[in-house]
Design a protein that fits this description.
With 130 residues, this protein is of the alpha+beta class. It has one domain: 2-Layer Sandwich (Alpha-Beta Plaits). The protein has three helices and six strands. The radius of gyration is 18 Å and the shape is elongated.
Length: 130
Amino acid sequence: MAENMLDMGQETNLGKVEIAPEVIEVIAGIAATEIEGVAAMRGNFAAGVVERLGKKNHGKGVKVELTNEGIVVDVYVLMYFGVSIPSVAQSIQDNIRQALLTMTGLDLKEVNVHVVGVTFDTQKTEVDPI
């Protein structure tokens, strides 16, 4: 499991600090869902079943790749109909980059936003009869 860990390069007399890629996925997932205009993150069937059982999967819709050049984060989102997709995507990239830099000190090589769907607001408003 140590080969999947990201070495922070900080070694003190107490030991080494390493971050699992799953931690980066969770931070990026939360940062993406904070942006107004993001309806949901794309997940797979198993993640959907787990969420219906009550456990929230914050890493859903996020893929982290550790390369020699740096860290690449791919985010798969559904957006609300009517939002500016380029503007929301830019906000997602900025928020993920800032959250990871603040929480881990890691600078990312790329943050790729994949818009996999558009959803409509299904809330119906009741009209008072006249």
